[in-house]
Design brief:
By secondary structure, this protein is α/β, with parallel strands linked by helices. The protein has two domains: 2-101 and 248-275, Leucine Dehydrogenase, chain A, domain 1 (Rossmann fold, 3-Layer(aba) Sandwich); 105-240, 3-Layer(aba) Sandwich (Rossmann fold), CATH 3.40.50. The chain has ten helices and eleven strands. Helix 1 (2-8) runs antiparallel to helix 10 (263-275) and helix 5 (103-115) packs across helix 6. It binds 2'-monophosphoadenosine-5'-diphosphate. 2'-monophosphoadenosine-5'-diphosphate (ATR) is lined by residues 44, 128-133, 152-154, 157, 190-192. The site of 2'-monophosphoadenosine-5'-diphosphate (ATR) has 14 residues, from helix 6.
Length: 277
């Protein structure tokens, strides 16, 4: 999606994938910096490690405690730090790394666009309290959901998350376990559904899909998980995580280029790449 977007904007840039051993993450970032890369994306398991490896942290990375986007910046003669794109062909002597996180904003943008869902004042059941679940829970709380119910295989993680949310967003009610009442949205942030034959992450003996209006699954491959299939059959509005992938990418694109991301071009490239049509 990034290469399609660069082409659409006439930028002579390339987005490439590299597999990096976590033990070599620091060296990999330094290497990219030395080669005057414009920026990087990082994914599992590097997002948490990178927090301690960048020179500056944007508010988004501080809040979510994880870095999925790095921008390389150069020092101007006035001692300001500017993205490398601003320097044209005169490469600055001194550069630094700044870490950002676009995952949470990507989720909120996708919920808005794909489900027409505004989080404020809503009741949400969130399945999963790992890395993705934690970021989602904090984002939902920061967008002023009214009630948030947390369910996770390992109960202690929901307890820790409840403490963290209550400390930072005291007005949000955080319940542990399945709600007895109806909710507006169920979000799957577990990895259950990625593999064929995986069970649904939702225990329908504890919570019926009739109790929610909408279901969002962060998994985008397969396009329709067991959970989404059941949700559709129960008459819920549904969306998968492709929109979250798109929007976190679009926000990273804007951080690097300083230009609005060509969303339609990126969405088409992503669908082509992920689903082959
Ligand atoms: P990510 O960064 O993608 O969120 P993660 O931090 O490893 O990855 O989190 C994976 C999530 O899927 C967790 O909520 C995990 O539950 P645990 O905290 O109990 O490990 C959940 N998960 C993974 N496999 C599962 C399974 N077989 N049944 C239920 N939950 C599962």
């Amino acid at each position: 999606m990034h290469n399609a977007a660069f082409a659409a904007l006439g930028l002579n840039w390339r987005y490439l994938a590299f597999e990096v051993d976590p033990k070599q993450l620091r060296a990999a970032i330094a290497g990219a910096q030395a080669m005057k890369f414009t920026g990087l994306n990082l994914t599992v398991p590097h997002k948490l490690l990178a927090v301690d490896m960048v020179d500056a942290l944007d508010e988004s990375a501080k809040v979510w405690g994880a870095v999925n986007t790095i921008r390389f910046e150069g020092r101007t003669t006035q001692s300001d730090w500017l993205p490398l794109r601003e320097f044209n062909h005169c490469v600055p002597v001194e550069t630094r790394t700044q870490g950002f996180n676009t995952d949470a904003a990507g989720l909120a943008a996708s919920l808005r666009e794909d489900l027409n869902f505004d989080l404020q004042g809503k009741k949400v059941l969130l399945l999963g309290a790992g890395g993705a679940g934690r970021t989602a829970a904090l984002k939902l709380a920061s967008e002023n959901v009214l009630e948030l119910f947390l369910v996770n295989r390992t109960f202690s993680k929901t307890l820790e998350l409840q403490v963290e949310i209550t400390r930072n967003f005291p007005s949000v009610y955080v319940g542990l376990g399945y709600p007895k009442t109806e909710v507006d949205l169920v979000i799957n942030a577990t990895s259950l559904g990625l593999k064929s034959g995986d069970a649904s992450p939702l225990d329908e003996k504890e919570f019926s899909l009739k109790q929610t209006r909408a279901v969002y699954d962060m998994i985008y491959r397969p396009a329709e998980t067991t959970l989404l299939k059941a949700a559709k059959a129960a008459g819920c509005k549904t969306a998968n995580g492709l929109g979250m992938l798109l929007h976190q990418g679009a926000k990273a694109f804007e951080i690097w280029t300083g230009q609005p991301a060509p969303l339609d071009v990126m969405r088409r490239a992503l669908e082509q790449n992920v689903y082959g049509h």
